[in-house]
Design brief:
168 residues, alpha+beta, Ubiquitin-like (UB roll), DNA polymerase, domain 1, 15% strand
Length: 168
């Protein structure tokens, strides 16, 4: 018999305490316990990237990580990208440049791009390709995704500071 363990994790700014089976993956915890279904489970081997979330600002494959390993940490999922009820500039760029089709892989791409652009606000094509090398899309084609990332970088560089009403 497996003993459940209490964890406390902050997800998208809200702290959650839960009793979990130590074998529960972080993806299953997010989807099943917290009803954050934007985190998709594709391959369950960490290869496709659909389950990518940010743990303390770094991208991780939530299908490979146990929920108990996230105890005491802060996570961001695709649901946490919106700002004041509006799509994040990265999300808008993916819409505008057709960087998504079926949408299954999109949350993983968005989270990976968020980490990339926070660390490299004006990445080269090579940096973008390198960052997205662990993400698989079966529908879109990577050129529109590359254009989406470039547009997102431009949007973020021209965006007003949080809490201001300045226009770019």
């Amino acid at each position: 018999m497996t003993t459940q363990q209490t964890i406390s994790v902050t997800v998208n700014g809200t702290t959650h305490e839960a009793l979990v089976d130590p074998r529960t993956t972080l993806a299953d915890f997010l989807r099943g316990e917290l009803a954050l279904t934007g985190t998709h489970v594709g391959c369950e081997h960490g290869v496709c990237g659909a389950c990518t979330v940010l743990l303390e600002g770094r991208s991780v494959r939530s299908c490979l990580m146990l929920a108990v390993q996230a105890d005491g940490t802060s996570l961001t999922t695709v649901e946490g990208m919106e700002e004041d009820g509006n799509l994040h500039p990265i999300q808008l760029a993916f819409v505008e440049e057709h960087g998504l089709q079926c949408g299954f892989c999109t949350p993983g791409f968005l989270m990976t791009v968020r980490e990339l652009l926070e660390n490299s606000p004006d990445p080269s094509d090579e940096e973008i390709r390198d960052a997205l090398g662990g993400q698989i899309c079966r529908c879109t084609g990577y050129q529109s995704i590359l254009r989406s990332v470039k547009l997102a970088a431009a949007k973020l560089q021209g965006a007003p500071l949080a809490g201001t009403t300045e226009s770019p």
